[in-house]
Amino acid sequence: MRFALGALLWVSLSVAAAEAPLRFVVSDSWAMPMVQMERGRPTQGILHDIMLSLATQVGMPAQFHILPRARVQNAMDHGEVDVRCYVSQSWLPNLSGDYIWSVPLLVQRDLLIGRRGSSVSVNPADLPQQSIGTVRGYSYPTLQPLFDANQLHRDDARNQEQVLEKLLAGRYRYAVSNQWTLDWFNQRLLPEQQLQSVALVHEQSVGCYVRDDPKVPVQRILRTLLKMKMSGEIDDIIRLYTGNPAANL
Question: How many other CB atoms are found less than 10 A from the CB of residue 22?
Fold first, then answer.
């Protein structure tokens, strides 16, 4: 009887372990083509598909936690989530040794955007004092000296799509956007309405990092991400949403 109870307990624990989710943090500032939010949960997009495929290949159900950007790292530190993606090591220079980074997976290209008819090329340092569209909580290292000097002022919106909507409505003359979001946003506009890039602001590699916890299959996650990158799967996901794998490293 004691053996039977022990066997039953082992089976129960094994089932519970098999059903433990891989918990991803999703910033509420993301927009398509990175993530589409519907009824408070992500349903599609480049990052959604990458994270879902990762969890499937690791053999764990994916669980998404949508949080304001300012709360993301706190959730990682308190063990509420396991994996954070679409982040650069340069954004977190003082991150503790409790996390392990993946290989670089994508390239984020931040652009200065203007409305149709803007100058074809603009040097941000030459702009007169004005506000530009930015995302709340986002860091713009190359523009920060201009913010510090009060030459440019941040006009923050909750996410990247709202920034571009405000630019289109004429709330400011210029805004910062990543290339993918700009291309996605322009798809719904007539050619004469489409927003245009006037300067490359910053370009950097981004990847994922994983909480180094015995309960999390860290090395399996990192090996799977490497395989997804080397096999071309990640570029295929990007191509699905953008038409080209514009994230080659």
Answer: 23
Query: What is the dihedral angle through the alpha carbons of 139, 23, 89, 234, rounded to the nearest 10 degrees?
Result: -100
* DSSP at 80: S
- Decide the pairing of beta strands 22-27 and 83-87: parallel
What pTM value is reported for the model?
0.83
pLDDT tens digits for 70-129?
Answer: 888 889 989 999 999 999 988 887 788 899 999 999 999 999 999 988 777 899 999 999
**Which of 37-68 are b and which e, b meaning 16 or more Cβ less than 10 Å from the residue's Cβ?**
beeeebebbbbbbbbbbbbebbebebebeebe
3-state secondary structure of 76: helix
**CA–CA separation, 61 vs 101, rounded Å?**
21
Residue with tokens 């063990």: 79
Q: What angle do CA 69, 74, 77 make, to 5 degrees?
A: 135
Rounded distance, CA 232 to CA 225, Å? 11
Q: What is the DSSP string of 141-199?
A: TTTHHHHHTTSEEEEEESSHHHHHHHHHTTS-SEEEEEHHHHHHHHTTS-TTT--EEEE
For each of the domains in the chain, give its residue range(s) and CATH number, in order of start. 21-107+204-242 (3.40.190.10), 109-201 (3.40.190.10)
Structure tokens at 7: 């066997």
